[in-house]
Design brief:
This protein has 4 helices and no strands.
């Protein structure tokens, strides 16, 4: 029961993160292009601030639940006397997940900070440049997230 609960929490946290990136890139961003730069950049700043809070929560849940599930697996293997060999898919998912977290750290603490400074100063060209950089890294993270989902599904 505990393992199943952890797995559900893990999956839901990934759905929020990967789904949020897909929504932002494929639906929100194209829709706001009709707005003038001050409105577009201001709106994206507010949306990203809220979304990044959800991503932080998703990272905490994904990391904690993933480590806990691995610990349960290792403990059960050790109790049965079997050697502990993590499935290759788990290793790939964990490594790519940590990479996604590092990329998110760069997005949140470097690029988003540039966006915040630009919005505060009403420097719309700098805000647009910050959003473009964020978009590029979010695209990379979305691709990695899709690979993780493919590994998990196979």
């Amino acid at each position: 029961m505990l393992y199943a609960t952890l797995k559900i929490l893990h999956l839901l946290s990934i759905i929020v993160w990967v789904g949020g990136m897909a929504f932002t890139l494929f639906f929100l961003r194209p829709a706001v292009t009709m707005l003038e730069p001050p409105a577009r950049i201001g709106l994206m700043h507010v949306v990203l601030r809220r979304f990044f809070g959800a991503v932080v929560a998703s990272i905490v849940v994904a990391l904690a639940s993933g480590i806990w599930m691995m610990a349960i697996f290792s403990s059960q293997a050790a109790q049965s006397g079997a050697s502990v060999n993590m499935p290759l898919g788990w290793t790939v998912m964990a490594a790519l997940g940590v990479l996604m977290m590092a990329i998110f750290g760069h997005i949140r603490f470097v690029l988003f900070k540039r966006l915040q400074i630009a919005v505060t100063a009403s420097n719309w060209p700098a805000g647009g440049a910050a959003l473009a950089a964020i978009r590029t890294w979010v695209q990379i993270n979305l691709l990695i997230g899709v690979v993780i989902v493919a590994v998990a599904a196979s």
